[in-house]
Every structure is written in C-alpha cells, then in structure tokens.
Amino acid sequence: MSQNGKLMPNLDQESTKVLNLTVLRRIDPFVEEILTTAAHVTFYEFNIEQSRW
Q1: Where along the chain do its domains lie?
Q2: What is the rounded distance in angstroms from the CA atom of residue 25 to the CA atom of residue 34?
Q3: What is the reported pLDDT for 2?
Q4: E strand or H helix at 19
Q5: DSSP tag of 36
Q6: Distance (Å, rounded) from C-alpha 33 to C-alpha 1?
Q7: What is the annotated signal peptide range for this record (predicted)?
Q8: pLDDT in tens, 1-44
Q9: CB environment 10-48: b (16+ within 10 A), e (fewer)
Q10: CA-CA distance, 17 to 22, in Å (whole number)?
C-alpha cells in the first residue's frame, strides 16, 4: 500500500507498458506503441478562430 492509502500494483516496467497499451487500445484499436510516459500531463486545446487556449 502506498502512503496515501491506495493499493498500488507491484508491476515491472514491461508489465506496466503492456497494461497501459491494452487500456489505450480499448479506446483506439489502432494504437501501435507507447513512445514515452509521464507521471503528470496537462492537455491544452487551442481555439484557432479566437487564437486562445
């Protein structure tokens, strides 16, 4: 168990990659590979018409 009380699986790097790829393929079956991973991400969407994020 981690410090915040959540149960964390004990997976090696390859198992984690396979699991993540499986989840992504449920959403998009055409995903071929994971190029990189990050602990935290932020997704921004740019509005071209208003030139705003």
Answers
A1: 1-53
A2: 11
A3: 58
A4: helix 13-27
A5: -
A6: 30
A7: none
A8: 556 778 777 888 899 899 999 999 999 999 999 999 888 989 89
A9: eeeeeeeeeeeeeeeeeeeeeeeeeeeeeeeeeeeeeee
A10: 9
